[in-house]
Amino acid sequence: QTITNVIASALSLGKKVLFVSEKLAALEVVRHRLNQAGLGNFCLELHSHKTQKKKFIEDIASRIEEQFPAPAQFQAKLTTLQRQKGELARYAELMGSRVGNALGLTVNEIFWSAERRRQALGEISLAIKAIAFPDASAWTLDDIESRTTRLSALAALHDVICHFDTRHPWWGFQPRPLAPSDDEAIGRIIQGALDAAVHSDAAALQVCNAFGAPEQTDLHAAAKTRALLEQLPPPPGTVDFSLLRRMFDPDSDPSGQFSSRLLSEVTAVVGKAR
Q: What is a GO molecular function of this protein (predicted)?
């Protein structure tokens, strides 16, 4: 097909072409292609010394007698083809230009690189489609590597914490830029909070054991228990605490049920005696 196109182009310029091939099959293929293109009448076959004189003369006569009317709207079609050719040339030039990036990539390379990554992401690409980076055209390869490293670290942290919304303890915490030495101060604060939480948990457990109540499982229940404790009236001044401790022995009667029943019986007897 390439040879046929070259011959057709030369004929359009009024040139003569001598096409020579060692194999007859190649000559026949080119002749067949020229016939399909309507250029068979411009082809004179001289295959070898075996070419028949009669066939040779008939080919020349056919060419002389052939009439070739001018094709309709030829100039208009030629103008259209030239315009389309120019558009394709400008498009190819644009796709091969190296603009809009600091990586030295052509527009074609950028488009196909983005498309490969979009297909690799699948449905995730729809979620990040609206994300824009205004200064991305100025990024160098080092800038991209730096951002990729930080994003990978962020993804690893997200895998550890599982989620970052209202369910997370640090939700709403927006620290200012931290200096390298600030981590020690933050560590001390966190350790203090952890110690306080352990102490609070132990105190809540002690209260639950003293009252025979179920263990507190969250801060809301612990706060409710604390509010109830604050509502208890203070003990009277005549209470003998040494006797009280012996009556409510945490080892033999941790919930105080036996002592409470015994006090109720004593109170009833005293009431009858009065």
A: helicase activity
